[in-house]
Design a protein that fits this description.
The chain is of the alpha/beta class. Helix content is 24%, strand content 24%. Strand 1, helix 1 (22-28) and strand 2 (31-33) form a beta-alpha-beta unit. The protein is elongated.
Length: 199
Amino acid sequence: MVNSNEVSDYLNLITQAFDQCKKMLNELNVVKVNTEDTAGAAQIVASKGVRDTGAIASSRAAEIYGLHILSKKFQDYSDNVTRFLILAREPIIPGTDKPHKTSIVFTLEEGPGVLFKALAVFALRDINLSKIESRPLRSRPLRIVDDSNKGSAKYFDYFFYIDFEASMAEPRAQYALRRLQEFSSFLRVLGCYPVDINL
């Protein structure tokens, strides 16, 4: 973590988070070296012990590797968040002993109120949605409503990404997804993980 006043003599910068810090990196005019992750970048800087190299990393990484933090909130946007996923070949069903968040992706057929129905399966079971995003499907980004192609309405097919605050071990989450599956053309659970309530 660096700032332009204190780092004018820093020549190298090691991190993978370049896209999240473009403005400051352009101001500093530093050489960028890619690493596998930001904590790994901090470890490299610490192990080499050179004073002309910095890393964009968490304050926890600085603490672990004995580095000095030169600047906090180095990213371009203060609400920027990086998410990490753990992948497994076999599903691991979490418990209900602490708060969990579940991430899903689904598609819907076009029709009146279909998105409302999709969101209602959660509201009716008192499940809070913490994130909703939509992305056009690459395979069918644009659809024509009628086959004549004469002045017809056009619309996009979308993937909907939702994070909701419930564990897959909870019956209400299972019922909500079972109901959503009845009218979605595609549904996949991306993961279920404990929520860090200390953030």
